[in-house]
Every structure is written in C-alpha cells, then in structure tokens.
Amino acid sequence: MIFLLTSIIFSAISCSQIILIYGTLNVSDVLSTTSVSDKESCSELCLSEVNCVSLFFIPSSGSCSIYSMYQVLSYQKNDVSENVVGIKTNSSSSTCSSSFSDINLSGDVNGIAYQFSPDSSFSYQTCPEEYKQFTRTRGIWCMKLHNFSTPTPRDFSYCSQQSAYPTGFDNDDEISFITSEILSLSLLQRNIGIDGHRKSSCYNSTTTWCDDFEWSNNYTNYPTLINWAANDPSRRDGSILENDLGIWMKDESTLVDIFGDIANTTNIHGFVCGVPLGNWNFD
User: Fold this and answer.
1) pLDDT of 48-67, one tens digit each?
2) Together in a domain, 139 and 266
3) PROSITE patterns recorded for this chain (predicted)?
C-alpha cells in the first residue's frame, strides 16, 4: 500500500489542490459531514468550501468530513489504511497542473500559512501560546492580555518586546474576551492599556477639542468601537492631558462602558497586545 495517492484534485479557478493521503486526522471539530460516492467527490466538497483546508474520507461508509484550519490539529499517516486524508494546498503552476511536482509544500491557503511533508506531517500557522484567535475584516488576529504584577506606566514598547503590536478592538467578540480576562484578575489589577491615541488635530490649540482616536498600526480598523465609561472622555486630569485609551473596571462583576482616556504616564496593570496571522488585506 503506498502512502501518497497518485490522484491530486484541483480547482481550475483558484489553483487550490487537494493532496490525498492514507491516514487519519486528529481534529477538534468539523465543518460538515456528508455521504459521497468517492474520494474525488469529497475533495470537490472541500475545494468548493472556502474555509475547508482538510478532509477525511471513509470509503466503507462514504462518510466525507471537511475541516477548517482551526479544527485540524494534526494527521497521522497509515500505509495500510483505506481511509483517506486530504490536504488543501496551492499550485506553483499558472495552469493549475495536476502534477505533484507543481505542488507547493509550503505556502498559504485562505491567508493561513501551511507547511506540508508527505512523509511526516503538516501544520498550519497558529497563534502564539496563550493568545486568542479572532477573525477581522482584514485578516486573522491573535490577542492576549499581558498582566503586570506591578503597576507600570503605559508604554507601547511593551508589546514590541513580546514580538507583538499594541491593539485596539475590531469587534464585540474581542471586547468580550478581554472583558473576561480582566474579570479573572484581582480587583487591584483593574487598569489596562490598549492601543489608541487621540488625533493631534483634536487637541491642537487652533482647533476645537474632539474625541477622534487613531491606532499606532493598520491592524485595527474600527475606531468607533469605544464604549465610554461614566465621566469619560474626561480629556484631562487637571493640567495633565489624557489622550490615550485604556480600559477601566467599573465594579466587581461587570465591565460595561469600559473605555476611558488616560495620560501616557498613567500606571496600568496590563496591556493588550496582538499578532497578525497569515496574509492581511490592507486595500
């Protein structure tokens, strides 16, 4: 029994290709499972589903399961198994050749980097350890709340020291995640730094003060997602300008209307950092 099947199924539209292998998949969940007549039909299902990156076909039952990148953990080859694993890759041929020599063994599918070795394993790029993965309109984003044991002045360089970027929020799921992370901290650890700085035009002496904020990088693109806490934005604390964004715990159990403007010298108990995953669309 050979390990690598001779058939390679490809989509002439996108040059995505399915490499078929004897073995099993280790997965956490499934996009869908249906009955089909053969492995080719199962491959076509995966090619037609943009989020599918892998498939598992059982010839004896006709069961075809397809999986997204987030659901596939690993595969195990099995030279004597009749069950088939399919891995979606891309082609190095402009004509979508079905030749195995034209398969890119590393690249990206759906903007997610992959590395494939027929004799051992495949893997997809994942978030760094302890980072949570989210889907933004421009790409895949990983986030983590870094908790400080000692209150520290707000400093953007902290995230770069973690090979990450300061981050704002792009959707409600991200806010809910960071909210739950903050609630898991003690009440003394309640002031959190995030990306966001009031536009200089808003506090220029020749213009009217305003509350328009901008980000330090292009990965956050939702500046209106700011739910101000009571008495914020305050814009200044005495003579100290408060032109940066932070998160404040309102009470012991909830974080509703959590954003505040703070000074760049404010001591914080953590910073929210982010890491991009795969290719991003900045058009």
Assistant:
1) 888 888 899 999 999 999 98
2) yes
3) PAN
- Residue whose C-alpha is closest to residue 34's, from 19, 48, 23: 48
Residue 266's identity, in one-letter code, is T
Alpha-carbon distance of 113 to 274, in angstroms, equals 18
Instruction: List the CATH number of the domain containing 20.
Output: 3.50.4.10
- Quick one: how far is CA 22 from the chain centroid? 30
Which residues on adjacent β-strands are paired with residue 8? 19
d(CA 121, CA 153): 45
pLDDT in tens, 162-203: 899 999 888 888 988 988 888 777 655 568 889 988 888 887
Rounded Cα distance between 93 and 116, Å, is 18
The β-bridge partners of 144 are: 273
pTM: 0.62
Question: What is the dihedral angle through the alpha carbons of 196, 243, 263, 273, rounded to the nearest 10 degrees?
Answer: 0
Q: Which residue range forms the structural domain that includes residue 194?
A: 132-277
CB 245 within 8 A of CB 215: no
- Say which DSSP state 88 is in: E
CA–CA–CA angle 200, 172, 234 (5° rounding): 35
- Nearest CA to 53 among 67, 39, 32, 65? 67
Alpha helix segments (H runs only) across the chain: 39-48, 157-161, 172-183
18: tokens are 């399915």
**199-236 b/e (C-beta count within 10 Å ≥ 16 → b):** eeebbeeeeeeeeebebeeebbeeeeebeebeebbeee
CATH code at 251? 3.10.100.10
Residue 226 carries which side chain, given as an amino acid letter?
I
Please give the tally of structural domains in the chain.
2
